[in-house]
Amino acid sequence: MSVSATHNLLGKDDFLKLFVKQMQYQNPLNPMDNTEFASQLAQFSSLEQLTNISTQMNDLLIFQNSLHNTLTASFIGRNVKYGGEHEGGGTVTGITFENNLTFLIIDGKTKIRLSDIKEIS
């Protein structure tokens, strides 16, 4: 997310400030109904929990990607056998990432999808 896009987003603190202002300036002759008040508090709580879940899911995704990259890097120098379009084997000499896919470079020339690896030794 870009800096300008982040700057325009409202956070939970902004919603809470807005809610407090709404309470301060409500019409004393027609105050907010208790049910409506409870409903808005529940919505705010739900928003806060969804924000927390979203943050935790992003953190989990970052960790998962890091773990995947570490595991893939451990293949360098190892002998593998692969299937897929072309069957064969060789030594992993490099790794490349393209369009959210991981490829292993075999013997410096053959590019194989990670999912096509059948055996590692």
Count of DSSP helices?
A: 3
State the helicity in percent bands: 40-55%
* Tally of DSSP β-strands: 5
**Quaternary organisation of the protein chains:** single chain
> Ranges with pLDDT <50 over ≥5 residues?
1-5
Strand order of the largest sheet: 4-3-2-1-5
Average pLDDT, all residues:
87
Largest sheet: 5 strands, antiparallel
Radius of gyration: 26 Å
- Helices and strands, in order, run as HHHEEEEE
The 3D shape can be described as: rod-shaped
Number of domains: 2
Report, as a whole number of angstroms, the end-to-end distance: 41 Å
| Class computed from helices, strands and strand pairing | alpha+beta
* Proportion of residues in β-strands: 15-25%
Overall description:
The protein is α+β, with helices and mostly antiparallel strands. It folds into 2 domains: 1-73; 74-121, SH3 type barrels (Roll), CATH 2.30.30. The chain has 3 helices and 5 strands. It has a 5-stranded antiparallel sheet with strand order 4-3-2-1-5, with no helix packed on it.
